[in-house]
């Protein structure tokens, strides 16, 4: 899953208007993938190109104990939750960010072939929805658009920025699905993924700076 990971970020940002702005939740949504590709650059975690891995994604994610194990993901979730809670002096904001980080493992469990672990080794888990494009594609688009519309419904502001954000997200998702697949794993693939995350997060910063939430009494207030 790619842009579907940002669905919990939209929901969290809309559900708690006094919390961080949208971009913070976007970082949380892909935090374990940010970490994974950085660790892959260092050779700590590993993947390889395997056309037989799944129908949609030809990547064998065979060694990612520090990011995509359930315990590893939980560790990243707790760490970000603590940082956000301290930075914003808001325990609820930290808790929501931790939940968004943790949602990454759940969504990967739905789509990945069995390559997720509980503690980094042993039995692997994954429902393998990537082997069923007719289900995986509408699911990813559906949850992303649904969460996006919830965020728009709950907030006020210019329409242009969020429409550009969702358009960029959809365009990058189409590239992810339909562009030629890489022939081998390597630094270019890792940097390409990180660049895509950075582009989306940059647009989320722009959107978050221009969206406001309706508070009691009908007054519009910027999210903190």
Which spans have pLDDT < 50 for at least 5 consecutive residues?
216-224
**Multimer state:** single chain
Question: Which H/E pattern describes the elements?
Answer: HHHEEHHHEHHEE
Tell me the strand percentage band. Answer: 5-15%
Mean pLDDT: 94
Radius of gyration: 17 Å
Sheet with the most strands: spatial strand order? 3-4-5
Count of distinct strands? 5
Q: What gap, in angstroms, lies between the N and C termini?
A: 29 Å
Count of DSSP helices? Answer: 8
Helical/strand content category: mainly alpha
Q: What overall form do the CA principal axes indicate?
A: globular
Q: How much helical structure, as a percent, in the residues?
A: 55-70%
Largest sheet: 3 strands, antiparallel
What does this structure look like?
The chain is mostly helical. Helices cover 58% and strands 8% of the residues. Helix 7 packs antiparallel against helix 8 (187-208). The longest helix is centred in the middle third of the chain and has 22 residues, at 133-154.
């Amino acid at each position: 899953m790619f842009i579907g990971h940002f669905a919990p970020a939209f929901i969290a940002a809309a559900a708690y208007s006094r919390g961080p702005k949208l971009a913070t939740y976007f970082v949380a949504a892909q935090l374990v993938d940010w970490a994974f590709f950085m660790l892959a650059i260092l050779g700590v975690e590993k993947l390889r190109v395997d056309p037989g891995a799944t129908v949609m994604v030809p990547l064998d994610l065979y060694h990612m104990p520090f990011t995509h194990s359930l315990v590893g993901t939980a560790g990243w979730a707790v760490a970000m939750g603590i940082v956000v809670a301290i930075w914003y002096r808001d325990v609820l904001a930290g808790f929501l960010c931790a939940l968004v980080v943790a949602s990454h493992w759940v969504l990967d469990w739905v789509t990945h072939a069995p390559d997720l672990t509980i503690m980094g080794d042993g039995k692997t888990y994954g429902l393998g929805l990537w082997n069923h494009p007719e289900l995986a594609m509408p699911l990813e688009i559906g949850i992303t658009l649904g969460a996006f519309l919830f965020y728009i419904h709950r907030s006020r502001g210019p329409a242009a920025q969020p429409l550009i954000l969702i358009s960029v997200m959809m365009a990058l998702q189409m590239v992810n699905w339909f562009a030629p697949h890489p022939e081998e794993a390597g630094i270019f693939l890792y940097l390409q993924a990180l660049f895509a995350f950075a582009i989306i997060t940059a647009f989320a910063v722009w959107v978050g700076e221009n969206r406001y939430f309706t508070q009691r009494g009908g007054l519009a207030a910027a999210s903190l």
